[in-house]
Amino acid sequence: MRPYFEVKGRGAFKSGDILFARIEPSVFNEKYVLADNLMGRDFAFTSTEFCVVRPKEGINRYFLYSMFSCSFVFGSLMIPVPDKTTQDEIAEEVRKRRQEARRLREEAAREWEAARTHFEACLLEG
Predict the structure, then answer these.
(1) pTM
(2) CA max distance for the chain
(3) Angle CA(107)–CA(110)–CA(116) in degrees, nearest 5?
(4) Residue 26: is its pLDDT beyond 70?
(5) CA-to-CA separations, 3 to 39, 61, 74, in angstroms, rounded
(6) Cα separation of 58 and 83, whole Å?
């Protein structure tokens, strides 16, 4: 967190926006982030090094976010927009997979910590 006057560029984004870096190699490595948790705040600031994509009304943000991972979409910046039901189905699948990935990362961190603790205990007994 920094005071407003210290932030250069002062681009604003809000929950549901998609951010990606304008610089190489991040843009070519498809490094995007869906701003879905601003810790209770309505908006946040970003530098001018980021592009902010805000879904139009009626476009599911998770669907749009998933489209950024498709090479055929990013290559031409054309995003096909199916009907709302299909968008919602795709978005729900993306949401489930992100949630599962988050759960697996947390589980892996816990298991790694347990293995490290066990290994250190074995070394000390050694």
Answers:
(1) 0.52
(2) 64
(3) 140
(4) no
(5) 17, 29, 34
(6) 10
